[in-house]
Amino acid sequence: MTETPEQRESAEPSESTQSERLLGGHTGRLLVSLSLAWATLQLGRFLLSPLLPAIVDDLGMTTATAGLALGAFQLLYAVTQFPSGRVSDEFGRPTAVVAGLVAITGSFLLFAQVTTAAGFLAAALVLGLGKGLFAVPSRAQLSDGFVERRGQALGIYAAGTDLGGLAASAVGVVVTGGTVVWGVALAADWRAPFLPLAGLLTAVTVGYVGWNTAPYRLGRPALETRATLTRLLTTRRQRESLVAFALFFFVVGAWVGFLPAYLATAKGFSEAVAAGVFAVVFVVGFAVKPFAGRLADRFSRRLVAAGGLSVSVAAICGVVAFETLPAVVAAVVVYAAGYKSVFPVIDALLLDAAPDGSVGGDLGAARAVLLGVGALGPVYLGWVVDAASYRVGFVGLSACLVVATVLLVRGVE
Question: pTM here?
Fold first, then answer.
């Protein structure tokens, strides 16, 4: 099911390409519905970050308890990737996609009425389960529908993360009373956004069900864990690619978790300015991901990913070295352009390598590993900052990106 970059570059526009419509037609409608669903669930997930202080105060939780709930969400999200992928391989993508959307909608309804710490934990776990059920089968269904435009389709889908992040930043400001209209501060209970989100996701789900033509089937999948791991680790090229992607997710986990705190603590920016700079990351990602996916359809996917990582290495050094706000913002923009461009390329590379009958399972197993490693990034950076400094921690992250770049370049054919 794979093509070399040279074949993709030299091929004339084919009947397959013409049928792979990004807007309109069956493939376009599926792309729109799945991308909107991803953006909506990411909006709900990212809302938890700006609302966390209000949640902790309202529910009487400790910060450690809130961290445990979010950690449990991330862990369940990671471990669900592989079985959800296998379900989609054996019983069809829609079965797992709809199950995930229903669970995510349920989590939003739970968040809308949470009154205890235990209820918050339950809602977070349901959200992790739903996101895990949805993430891999939705990508696999796009891979089924898009072959020659796979990278571009995945780039549009992945941009939903940044659209959701931007919307969450705006909603978070309003809910916490950061918006003033005619001298009146607008604010609301932190639960207020989740009921409308549940309604929006229900509408998106109805649209997906109406546009989907693939069958729905139920059953118990055979996980085939050993066979899946064997396929993922067969060649040195595959093993080195997984290591490179794992290092990338490790860096992203640390960067995303600590960038606002770093800007406020080490650079002396106000919390509002730090949050604004962080929002810029989502703006850049929304613009860059579809473009990077298109590049990955035309040229070597590994070289596109390696290029993004190389840009990130240079830019992260700038973030550390620069002190003025304009210079730091410029470095953050460049860094975001580099690392955001890698996400759709990783998905495309993993999907290219998977055999037709095991696309979901292979992608799910790989993503479970990558997300698991990524969860260690904040642990590393938090420990290094306490023991040494942010500068030392970021040097370590830069070294990880350099190693990842070298490994990807080694695999270029």
Answer: 0.72
